[in-house]
Here is the input.
Amino acid sequence: MKGPGTSPPLWPHFSSPLRSTALTARLGAVLGICLAVCFGTGLLSHYQYQPWTWLPEPAAPIWIYRVTQGVHVATGIATIPLLLVKLWSVYPNLFRWPAVRSLPHALERGSVAVLVATALLQLFTGFFNVLNWYPWPWSFVPVHRFLAYVLIGSLLLHIAVKLPDITYGLKTRLVDGDVLTEKPWNENPASYSNNDKMHQPPPSTPAISRRGLLVAASGGIGLVALTSVGQTLTPLEPIGLLAVRQPSTGPQGVPVNRTADQAGVRDLAADPNWQLIVSGPDGYQLSLADIEAMAAAEADLPITCVEGWSVGAHWTGIRLLDVVRRAGGNAGSRVDFVSLEPRGSFNHSTVQGPQLSRALLATHLNGQRLDVDHGYPLRLIAPDRAGVLNTKWLKAVTVR
Ligand SMILES: Nc1nc2c(c(=O)[nH]1)N[C@H]1C(S)=C(S)[C@@H](COP(=O)(O)O)O[C@H]1N2
Ligand SMILES: [Mo]
Here is the structure.
């Protein structure tokens, strides 16, 4: 706006002295760090789903995926309020007049539109996924992955375009509520918006200072983070308002994402004539009595869901490597697992590389015969592995 009167009638005027380049730059810096951490840990998560054949998933430390995925979900959730505060700090830009000044300006505004839309979509759908609520028709994982690249790409572009404002903003002191000792918002000499006078200075005394705003925002974001990490950190469980899956919500002290009924396997799993079909150069079958008699190996391994919850557990069962060797394979084999579950993408998985030697075909969880919801009669459990790949209700194992 070149001054009052040139914008359309009824066009809103903004006068909050809280908004400033200094504030926006600080919010943006923290937001950028959170998104970078979320993106990096997200790439690791996708790698868990589709590891490269030349770089098989590690087996140690057994808790690494637990940490990276917990951080992924926690930063993703904490970023939602942070993004909302950041958007609040700049949304008067939507009402700048004239709306488009040049082709570069139009492109810049277009890229911000893509950035904001993808960020909101990505963070909210990610959060809904954690809540196991899918109010959309598309498949979550590929879309989440695609949006992540769009988001990071448009974020880098945004940072490049705004670099002068960012450096100016970060250098400027965040003076408490005092717009006079600081250049009014958007009067950044480095930016194209140089001559804009959007505010009618000086505004009234605000009820909260800029520093107070940052403290309040941090408090809110911290609260969101604390109430969601209860799904990983047991001591925080009682305040886990946003933590949907907690150890106490499932049998044998471990949460359940899909029950035997939901998977449609209750009858198949309870069949006394169940047999594990082991295929390979020397294929064979194991009955219920066989697996009970063979279950002598023990391991403490966490189960880590991609949705962010995780819990340490004690497992008893058969060493996968023993089963593989007896079928004519070895530690270098590729082993495919198939569940009794008839449908869905969670009914099969593959183990290859270092995880093979440390994986169990589990019969017991925390000292008890597996609950049917945890995969009775037999399930896979391997170290440092996404929960979704620890196939429950095993039917067949193929050694290649
Ligand atoms: N056959 C089958 N196995 C499965 C699933 C499933 O839906 N079907 N869910 C997976 C997911 S998403 C997780 S997090 C773990 C959870 O194991 P739990 O239910 O014993 O905690 O099992 C995995 N194994
Ligand atoms: Mo999961």
Summary: Residues 140-171 form the longest helix (32 residues). The CA atoms of residues 22 and 169 lie 4 Å apart. DSSP finds ten helices and ten strands in the chain. The radius of gyration is 27 Å.
